[in-house]
Amino acid sequence: MAEAAAILKISIKTLREHVKLGRIRSILVGTGKARKHRRFTDKNIHTFQEAQKVREIAPCQSSSTPKARFIKSSFGSTVIPFEALQKPETRRKQKL
């Protein structure tokens, strides 16, 4: 673990977290119940390094503000003020 962490230039704790999350593959060596050792191949380390590289991505085209479009409405509706709306009738409970 220490050697792999040194190659990747990260701490052992961070390397353990990457292993736990499945970002880097490892091989368990040993049959002891107390502590099994993890081994990393060169291919595992190289694959992890390639996956961690930041890729340059073109800026999102949808983030630019679109120009406002003016559309003429063909509907013949009218606007009713909120105060002009009628209140719904309340239900009265029937007496038994």
What would a concise description of this structure say?
The protein has 96 residues and is mostly helical. Helices cover 29% and strands 6% of the residues. It is built from three helices and two strands.
Itemize the secondary structure elements and their pairings:
Blueprint: H1 2-8, H2 12-21, E1 27-29, E2 37-39, H3 42-52
Antiparallel strand pairs: 1-2
Oligomer: single chain
- The value of Rg in angstroms is 32 Å
Strands across the major sheet, in which order? Answer: 1-2
Q: Structural class given helices, strands, pairing?
A: mainly alpha
Biggest sheet, open or closed, and with what strands and sense?
2 strands, antiparallel
Number of separate strands: 2
Q: What is the string of SSEs from the N terminus onward? A: HHEEH
Instruction: Tell me, briefly, the overall form.
Output: elongated
Beta-strand content estimate:
5-15%
Q: Name the helicity range.
A: 25-40%
**Residue runs with pLDDT of under 50 for 5 or more positions:** none
Mean pLDDT, to the nearest integer, reads 80
Note the gap between the termini.
79 Å
Counted by DSSP, the helix tally is 3
